What does this fold into?
Amino acid sequence: MDYAAVETFLSRLPIRDLRSHARVPFKFKYNQKKLHQHAADMQARGKPVRLVVNKARRVTCSSWATAVLFCHNLWLPSSHSLVVAHEFKTSKELMQTPRTFLEAVPWLGIDAVEREIRFPHQGAPSIMQIITAGKDTSGRGFTLSGLLASEAAHYISPDSFVSMLPALSTGKDTIGIIESTPNGRDGQGEMFYDMYWAAVRGDSEWEAEFLTWVDDPDCRADESYASDAPADEEEKDLMQRGLNKSQLAWRRLKIASPECGGAISVFHQEYATTAEESFIASGYPAFEIEEIKWARANLKEPKWRGFIEQSQDGTLKRKQHSEGTLLIWENPIHGHYYYIGLDAARGEEGRDFTAMCGWDGTTGHQVFSFNDYCTPEVVGFHANSLGRWYNRAMVNGDLTGGYGSGALYTMRETCRYPLLYRYKGKDDKMGGTVQSKALWTDIGSYIRSQMFEYFRIALREGSATDGDFGVTVYDQQLASQIERCSRKDSGRFDVRKGHDDLLFAALLGYLAMKHWAPPRSPNRAKDKDSEMEAEALAKMNARGDVVLDDAKTALQRHYAKIIRSIERGTFSAENMMEVD
It folds into this structure.
């Protein structure tokens, strides 16, 4: 099929305009030209057309795809195209484009019923059918030359993909198009997410396209609606990326429209500016885009990586190795307060990891992470060593499921660790005369929500102050778990795909930091407004060892004086009160 001839032919056929609803010639818009050129390029390379399209709303991808399949069936005898929609209403709408074409070319003798169009050819007709994913046959038993899977990320069952794709022939004249607005990274949207990024990486025969409103010339409005731009950090970031005020004006009008209802989160989901953002914004993410961006803003390689080797006395020995499970970004700093979260697991390889995450409570920086298969008792020794190294950090672990109990027992009874987190109770009871003496955290629904909300606030504070307050994440793995975390309909937060151990370790460590904040900083991890006071405190801390040595020396002298008095027989009770 000649794609240049297809574009010319379609430009002479009518289509319903989205804005005016009038019949206008089907002349390709910007994004349609982009898709058409990509399909033509694949054909020129001798490859069948295989496109996975990640798109914003209303970029007219489906009308282009159904029009191309219409021409495919008109051109190729005995061909069979299947258009699959995620719901019945959508499937009827997809049929409107080819049905409108029929009114302009009655002499072709094309026959149409509600959900099928037959193209007359010598020998055998060609067929174009529309079905609903999961409710019809979904392609089983077909041999297809053309396939459009529309809004594929919203199919109820991934089985729709499994049954359709093998039915698509491998000939060079065949056409396969999978297009959708994203629907998260797991659940219904998981298959589309995996297919799209496999195409981006070049791991499949499919090729990826991302259609964003930013590239569309129609997404412009009068600049007067954004005369004060940039009005916030996001607009500032967009302008730094090359967007002009007319684009920001269109964005503002779209956010305020009934389609988005004034909710910027809805705009992010339906009109993403990058492929990464499109999957983050959809699928009920537990963290907002601003929070996820900050979690990724400071990622860097650790300054040290290796394994923990434990001696019998509980001291820390580190062995550097490129495949190590202990990653260190910052060494302990004298006078800083540290917090460690611990999420213990059974220790069986192939199951959940045991994880630890360390925070500098004075700066809010992540200082280390640990992720490995080890038993609760062993990780108790590891936490003891790391905690003592980081200025006797406060350690908080998860007791849910019982695995944390073994680590807690090791730290408390065997290692006699000096600073274990004590649960403070609910917010309305904090600061009262009665405090719970329970060690560590048993994560119920209330404390789980509290942990997530505290950490989200800390990420937003970090984003708003460029790291002066809140937390700063350095670990790629932690950032990925934050990005994949979803919010269920029940309100529960969960990482439904992959591991969540490091995220929960980070949340536990920050919970301890929030409940038992460093001195002189009751609400923030870092107080930059009192630098002189902090400097004085640092000097006092630096004098700590000297003061201790002076007191120790005075007591030693006093003790020696008493011993000499006893030996000479001159000792009296007055000697007990004398200290040099």
